[in-house]
Amino acid sequence: MPKAKGKSRRHKYSYNLNRKRLYRSARRRAAPRIACSHIRQAWDPTKSVAQNLAEMGLAGDPNKAVPITKKKLLGMEVESNGQQQGKQLVRKPYVLNEMEYEASLPEKKSNTLSRDLIDYVRYMIQNHGENYKEMARDEKNYYQDTPKQIKRKINVYKNFYPEEYKDFVASLKQEKMEVQ
């Protein structure tokens, strides 16, 4: 009696198959993770995501909220549908207002350099001055930076901390004067 087709074939593991069937229903009922505190406070767990977002005046699907108008090829006239989707009443406009206010605030510049890079640049300037080739051959050049890379790092330090750099160079000049 011949073998059935497909029995001799190697069984392949299907990576796309969801084997967590037991937890699927529990995951559906769980509230979504919300990053914005304003939305989190106004969220009603008894309502659906679409209902909650509609009450706050937010869009769940940006493609439906701002549809792309189709242009006719010949007349280049804008085609518009006479049907406007039923606009739902915004019951929680304060959420949208708070988010707009928060977005309008200027951001703090938190650009800083690592302590290691600052120490590295200061060491190189202190021992070698403006000689970048000598800096590249220094034993503390652990990352084997080229002279151009070292120059770039020093320029970054100058741009981030201009006053500190000027004070540092001035103190180095004063030390040289005292030694001579």
UniProtKB/TrEMBL annotation:
Q: Which domain of life is it from?
A: Eukaryota
Q: Which keywords does the record carry? A: Nucleus
Location in the cell reads: Nucleus, Nucleolus
What are the record's GO terms for cellular component? Answer: nucleolus
The primary location reported for this protein is: nucleus
Pfam families noted in UniProt: Nop16 (PF09420)
Is Nucleus there in the keyword field?
yes
What's a GO biological-process term for it? ribosomal large subunit biogenesis
Q: Where is this region: Disordered?
A: 1-21
The record's comment on protein family reads: Belongs to the NOP16 family.
Put simply, this protein is called Nucleolar protein 16
